[in-house]
């Protein structure tokens, strides 16, 4: 374990299973929604456009998956302190967090364990609304201070998890298991964008501002925002991204993008993210240029659900900096549905 100049934070010896992780409330005002789009660099219309969300049958514009991770990340490090390192987060969503809601974030220590030199805890963090909606939950593994020494970042592999392919996986997708999609960041990691992230969830972790004389480190949970397309290129239609001005072309140019439909199940027109498991490795620093490589892991056969017929698909994405260091990886579970009649 390596020493650090930061002194604040909870010691592993002082943690007990069942211990409460004090959280916070945050109202989802119009300004909060604007901050969420800016902080996550996600300008898909349903995250800021109420009229568009209502057309889709959603009760209001809603924040994205990464914003929920940011809320949970703040809860974890507010409690653990800036010397703790987040090792993993497994986010499961059950409802949207929408404009007009008040997010209530809190947690509890569910497990305390040692692995070699590492002294770790797992905390179960939940997001609910003040009117009782269950939005999301996530077990988060944190490596903590032990005997006065701070943990070092984990070294991660680029290799995906091993999976057993579904016997009913559509042949059109089975034939594409060897495909890889790479996304390159349009801009380097910047202190300004780190600041936008902190602003959106009021995260005062001094590590993100270089506090106490240390270097600036970006939040681990931010790893997926850096290689999103530029704002005027990001939308449902990558050639005309603004749903309110379909005659306006992407700027400065259109980009080839079909995320999260790089692998589209037969006939599927809609998609929702169900679960996102993230593991975190090398720190993200200002000036880093992030790229990711995604691959298909698995897909079910056609299933009947309350949303209609659809397919459960999983994809793996590994994130690296310009030196090839693995800063993290995600395994995302998606439900693709809205199947065209002629397909079924």
Per the principal axes of the C-alpha atoms, what is the gross shape? Answer: globular
Mean pLDDT: 93
Strand content: 25-35%
- Which consecutive residue ranges, at least 5 long each, have pLDDT under 50? 1-7
- The helicity comes to 10-25%
Q: How many individual helices?
A: 5
CATH class of the largest domain: Alpha Beta
Q: How many strands in all? A: 11
- Which topology of the largest domain does CATH recognise? Thiol Ester Dehydrase, Chain A
CATH architecture of the largest domain: Roll
Radius of gyration (CA) equals 20 Å
Distance between the termini: 56 Å
Helix/strand class: alpha+beta
Number of domains: 2
Order of helices and strands: EHHHEEEEHEHEEEEE
Major beta sheet, specifics? 11 strands, antiparallel
Protein architecture, described:
A hairpin with a 4-residue loop joins strand 4 and strand 5 (about 135-145). This protein folds into two domains: about 1-150, Roll (Thiol Ester Dehydrase, Chain A), CATH 3.10.129.10; about 155-190 and about 225-344, Thiol Ester Dehydrase, Chain A (Roll). It is about 15% helix and about 30% strand. The protein contains five helices and eleven strands.
């Amino acid at each position: 374990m390596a020493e650090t100049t930061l002194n604040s934070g909870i010691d592993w010896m002082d943690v007990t299973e069942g211990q409460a992780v004090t959280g916070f409330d945050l109202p989802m005002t119009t300004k909060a929604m604007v901050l969420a789009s800016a902080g996550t660099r996600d300008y898909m219309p349903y995250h800021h456009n109420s009229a568009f969300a209502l057309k889709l049958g959603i009760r209001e514009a809603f924040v994205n998956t990464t914003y929920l991770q940011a809320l949970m990340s703040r809860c974890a490090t507010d409690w653990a302190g800036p010397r703790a390192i987040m090792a993993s987060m497994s986010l499961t969503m059950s409802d949207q967090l929408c404009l007009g809601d008040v997010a209530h974030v809190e947690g509890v220590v569910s497990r305390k364990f040692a692995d070699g030199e590492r002294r770790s805890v797992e905390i179960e963090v939940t997001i609910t609304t003040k009117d009782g909606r269950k939005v999301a939950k996530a077990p988060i593994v944190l490596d903590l201070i032990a005997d006065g020494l701070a943990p070092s970042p984990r070294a991660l592999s680029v290799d995906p998890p091993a999976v057993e392919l579904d016997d009913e996986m559509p042949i059109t997708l089975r034939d594409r298991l060897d495909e890889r999609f790479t996304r390159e960041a349009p801009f380097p990691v910047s202190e300004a964008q780190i600041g936008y992230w902190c602003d959106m969830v009021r995260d005062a972790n001094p590590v993100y501002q270089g506090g106490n004389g240390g270097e600036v480190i970006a939040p681990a949970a931010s790893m997926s925002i850096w290689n999103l397309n530029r704002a005027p290129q990001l939308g449902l239609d990558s050639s005309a991204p603004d749903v309110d001005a379909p005659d306006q072309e992407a700027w400065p140019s259109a980009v080839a993008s079909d995320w999260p439909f790089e692998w589209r199940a037969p006939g599927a027109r809609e998609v929702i993210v169900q679960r996102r498991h993230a593991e975190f490795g090398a720190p993200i620093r200002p000036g880093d240029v992030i790229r990711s490589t995604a691959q298909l892991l698995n897909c079910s056969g056609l299933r009947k659900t309350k949303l209609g017929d659809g397919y459960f698909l999983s994809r793996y994405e590994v994130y690296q900096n310009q030196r090839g260091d693995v800063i993290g990886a995600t395994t995302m579970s998606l439900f693709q549905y809205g199947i065209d009649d002629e397909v079924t």
